[in-house]
Amino acid sequence: MISWKNFQQPIVALSPMADMTDSPFCRIAKQFGWPVVFREMVSSEALVRESAKTLHMAAFHEAERPIIQQIFGKDPATMARAAEIIEKNFHPDGIDINMGCPVYKIVSDFNGACLMKDPDRACAIIREMKRAVEAPISVKIRLGWSDPTECLDFVKRLEAAGAELITIHGRTRAQGYSGVADWEMIGRAKQQVSIPVLCNGDIHTPEKVFEALTVSGCDGVLIARGALGCPWFYSWYREIAETGARQTEITMAKRVEYILAHLDLHCAEYGEHGVATFRKHLSYYFKGIENIKPWREQMMKIGTRSELEIILARIAQS
Ligand SMILES: Cc1cc2nc3c(=O)[nH]c(=O)nc-3n(C[C@H](O)[C@H](O)[C@H](O)COP(=O)(O)O)c2cc1C
Q: Which candidate, 5, 109, 114, 314, has a CA 20 to 30 Å from the CA of 62?
């Protein structure tokens, strides 16, 4: 189990991302030293129904530890039961509650960021979950539903209910992903509580980690989009922390080597069909790379792992 209060600071962790921070991606990321990873959200209702697909999503390999499993839901009893199922089956190092997802499908059913509109319910969820499991409970929120100062009171309520760590994405639900993450407001929220608070949003390069920590005064950061196609984000961050600059160049040959390792794990997890679902990762791995367009078009058409391996090997040699 993780002890957030005693965890080495600053905490630089991989943020939960649906369809992205699955077991294969987390295993690749761990090779670059991430001290803790948050796995993609799973539905509490599906867990309670014992959906095989959802249970599979929550499974992980020991190499991914310490690992935090995120769950979403609106009903305190269901969330507590879901946490129990997660703990009994998988024993993650912590359980995180999603109170920040802005997607219509989630909030229209009173899940995700919608819980920020009902602090009593949000707190009841934490209390029930804490009664049900030993794992530390953390919460991921936004600045607010529509007003960015909503988090200032909300975090106090979460702490009083028993949350042991809070991550704040520096946007409101109304903003979605537009505008700029407000690290100063996150910093104001951090001042309201004594538990560790993580700053999240727009920390897209390892250099930005230091800026976000300085501006917010937080105990750490969660990195989401910056780690997509860049699982080595954390090792660059360490190099900068230790020497003042990135040291390791990710050559095209190395990039392809890492992609192939990821592809292997992905296909071992999802079978041959995994090649199609791996395309989303390929887009990120080659984002912003010069002269990749003709290769990209070929990659998006292939259907088998061996075809993709051939193209990747050609890219490495080109
Ligand atoms: C593809 C994708 C999936 C996401 N899924 C989740 C999720 O399952 N749970 C969650 O709390 N946040 C989720 N998020 C939000 C991120 O964890 C993070 O809060 C947000 O992207 C802002 O951080 P960034 O600027 O570093 O990307 C997701 C974001 C993306 C881009």
A: 5
Q: How far is CA 69 from CA 34, 66, 113, 223, 226, in A?
A: 16, 10, 18, 16, 20
Could you tell me what percent of the chain has a pLDDT over 90?
86
- How far apart (Å, rounded) are the C-alpha atoms in residues 168 and 99? 10
What's the pLDDT tens digit per position in 148-175?
Answer: 999 999 999 999 999 999 999 999 999 9
Ligand 1 contacts CB of residue 40 (under 6 A): yes
Report CA(188)–ligand 1 centroid distance (Å): 22
Nearest residue (CA) to ligand 1, atom 15:
17
Name the DSSP letter for residue 140: E
Q: What is the pLDDT of residues 212-267, one digit of tens each?
A: 999 999 999 999 999 999 999 999 999 999 999 999 999 988 999 999 999 999 99
How far, in Å, is the centroid of ligand 1 from the Cα of 306?
A: 31
Average predicted confidence (pLDDT) for the chain: 95
C-beta of 101 in contact with ligand 1 (< 6 A): yes
Are 237 and 257 found together in one domain? no
**Annotated catalytic, 101?**
yes
Q: Are 122 and 98 in contact (CB under 8 A)?
A: no
Distance CA 266, CA 278 (A): 7
The answer on 181 and 294 residing in a single domain is: no
- Same domain, yes or no: 157 and 263: no
Which CATH number belongs to the domain containing residue 126 in this structure?
3.20.20.70
Residues 204 and 275 in one domain: no
129: buried, middle or exposed (CB in 10 Å: 19+, 13-18, 0-12)? buried
Residue 107: predicted pLDDT = 87
SS3 (DSSP) at 43: strand
- Domain extent, residue 94, equals 4-243
Alpha-carbon distance of 207 to 201, in angstroms, equals 14
